Amino acid sequence: MPVTTTRDRILDALETLLVDKGMSQVTLENVAATAGVSKGGLLYHFKSKDALLAGLVRRLGERATDQLAQATAQGRSVAEWYLQTPNPHNDSDALELALYRSMVAAMRTLEAPHAPADDELQRALTDVMNSWKDGLDAEVPDPVQAELIRLAGDGIYLRTLLGLPPLDPDLHRAVITRLLNR
Question: How many independent structural domains does the chain possess?
Fold first, then answer.
């Protein structure tokens, strides 16, 4: 069983507040109380609310990297991983469930008032999205095809995050086949 650090407990608490209650309940005091740490303990790890939210987004990137590594170790391509349909009810796959919860929480951070383009949360979101773009671009030589895969994958994931009905499995496979030129 992995060791849970104080930093992880704080990010878990933030994630729980975001998923269960939304951005309106995210205060440093609420996150600290939920994590079982003092506000000073929280501020030791994250210097501001923006740093806390950026930390959550960076962890999302780490979780995605872990899940992608597992998928490629099983012989799947980056593009296939990107086009997967997430399953929020798959309790048997801890990486998939953690990534899904992180995605929902990250989406909830967007409820925060708009910040300038140079803010820490915006940089963290941009870094995560660019890392996924870089993986697809390295694998798919045609930049237009890579962008189509990225856009389709984003739409598939967003559909699940919004709780919309899942795609028909046969149609989903046909989309993947077409996008991967098989």
Answer: 1
